[in-house]
Amino acid sequence: MNGGWPPLAWMQPIVAAWPYELRRWTGADLPWLFDAAQDAEVQRWTSVPSPYTLADALGFLGRADDHWAHGTHLHLAITSADTGLLLGNIVLKDIDWSYRRAEVGYWLARDARGNGVASTAVVGLTAWAFGELGLDTIELRAAVGNLASQAVARRSGYLHMGMEPGGCFDGDTRSDNALFVIRRDGVRP
Ligand SMILES: CC(C)(COP(=O)(O)OP(=O)(O)OC[C@H]1O[C@@H](n2cnc3c(N)ncnc32)[C@H](O)[C@@H]1OP(=O)(O)O)[C@@H](O)C(=O)NCCC(=O)NCCS
Questions:
Q1: What pLDDT, in 10s, does the model give residues 22-34?
Q2: Where exactly are the structural domains of the chain?
Q3: Does the N-terminal peptide bond of residue 19 adopt cis geometry, omega within 30 degrees of 0?
Q4: Looking at ligand 1, which atom is closest to the CA of residue 117?
Q5: Mean predicted confidence (pLDDT) in 107-124
Q6: Which residues have C-beta within 8 Å of that of residue 106, sequence separation ≥ 6?
Q7: Whose CA is closest to 152, among 161, 162, 164, 142?
Q8: Which atom of ligand 1 is nearest to the CA of 108?
Q9: CB of residue 126 inside a 6 A radius of ligand 1
Q10: Residue 7 binned pLDDT confidence (cut-offs 50, 70, 90)
């Protein structure tokens, strides 16, 4: 540990989330990312820009490396452990190393939905964040209208803490969100 957080810039973790794996994004992922992020649901419920350009995809990959180096947001590609096929994105964001808190976010390519991929990835990332990174608390926010994402939170063992005003994306507008939390010690916050 260095000043409370591990040296992340050169870390290339393979986070287990069987039958999936989470790994850092690479430049070779650009075409897949550009294509998958065109999806209307991804653009509606996340900070992914709409319309989504090649420059947006390139910018994301560059920022992802910077964020790893600064230890602020750890973006990971969700892949099939067997085939290596890309399925989506998951991020541990707004990491506060002093309070050992972070927030998790995610999106999947359209074809990867409906099979529990997101909750499996969230469970794997949560275990890694508690075990390898030493975090204590992870939050998850889903817009009130995003029932699939709220179901992912519950299925991943996160507790519903209540509603927050105006903190989530719903297209061009901000939406109230459902706040979920999980603690390493399992104690309700
Ligand atoms: C949200 C998202 C990640 C869910 O991932 P997923 O792996 O496909 O999730 P699942 O299909 O297994 O669905 C999870 C749960 O939501 C339920 N669900 C799916 N679509 C739903 C809908 N429209 N309304 C209500 N429930 C829904 C499923 O039945 C499932 O419930 P269960 O756990 O009780 O079986 C995916 O739909 C996605 O990428 N959406 C666009 C981006 C996004 O919304 N990101 C999250 C921002 S907070």
A1: 999 999 999 999 9
A2: 15-183
A3: yes
A4: 7
A5: 98
A6: 78, 88, 89, 90, 91, 118, 121, 122, 149, 152
A7: 142
A8: 39
A9: no
A10: confident
